[in-house]
Design goal:
single chain, Glutaredoxin, 4 helices, 6 strands
């Protein structure tokens, strides 16, 4: 009788231990599910928050860009784009401004896809690039070397822009687009970014989307 009782107690103890293990396992599974759900919720909230932050940043950046594109540029000179000739010619052209910002020009344009020229380029070809929406950065011997290097770097990162020396221009550093021109104090002058933002393929462009490659190179 005692042996049978001991066997029964042993079986009951084993069942109790198994049941306790099962309860512990179920409790652990519940904890894991709660942790997983909580972490997922935190992750989703973080992603949503980050996405909203990025969208807000992009929205603010877009607003700033649009504002810069509309704001007038201090001391900018403008010419009536409709009065600037656009004929293709094979003869020399005398332009009323230096560097020229428009007028009759050669049928071949200067490559203006981040192109930096260390020597002077033909005006009749450069003007054609402006017609395609390029910004032309020019400098003379009075321009500080450090500013020239900074501007070369900017042009080298900006499609529809080009840069070259113009020895006999009035200012040390000048920026030109079709019908538009400004002289700046240096590479860090805020009008540099403003001019690029406003006139690289800007509203002044007679032929927006026209090629800036496949033309005349250095």
């Amino acid at each position: 009788m005692t042996s049978r009782t001991n066997k029964t107690n042993s079986t009951n103890d084993r069942r109790a231990r198994i049941e306790e293990m099962r309860r512990a396992e179920r409790a652990r599974d519940r904890r894991n599910r709660v942790i997983t759900i909580s972490l997922s919720a935190v992750l989703v909230a973080g992603l949503v928050g980050f996405g909203a932050y990025v969208l807000n940043e992009k929205s603010e950046e877009k607003a700033q860009t649009e504002a810069a594109a509309k704001a007038p540029i201090k001391d900018e000179k403008s010419w009536d784009a409709k009065k600037l000739g656009r004929n293709h010619v094979t003869t020399a052209v005398t332009y009323p401004m230096k560097p020229p910002v428009g007028g009759d020009h050669h049928q071949a344009w200067m490559n203006c896809d981040r192109d930096v020229y260390d020597k002077p380029i033909p005006e009749v070809n450069a003007v054609h690039s402006l017609e395609h929406g390029a910004v032309w950065v020019t400098y003379n011997d009075q321009a500080p070397a450090a500013d020239v290097e900074k501007l070369k770097d900017k042009v080298g990162r900006t499609s529809y822009s080009m840069m070259s020396p113009v020895k006999d221009q009035a200012g040390p550093i000048m920026l030109s687009a079709w019908g538009k021109q400004v002289t700046v104090a240096g590479a860090d002058d805020p009008r540099v970014d403003q001019f690029f933002t406003k006139y690289v393929q800007g509203p002044q462009t007679p032929e927006p989307g026209a090629a800036c490659t496949g033309g005349l190179g250095a």
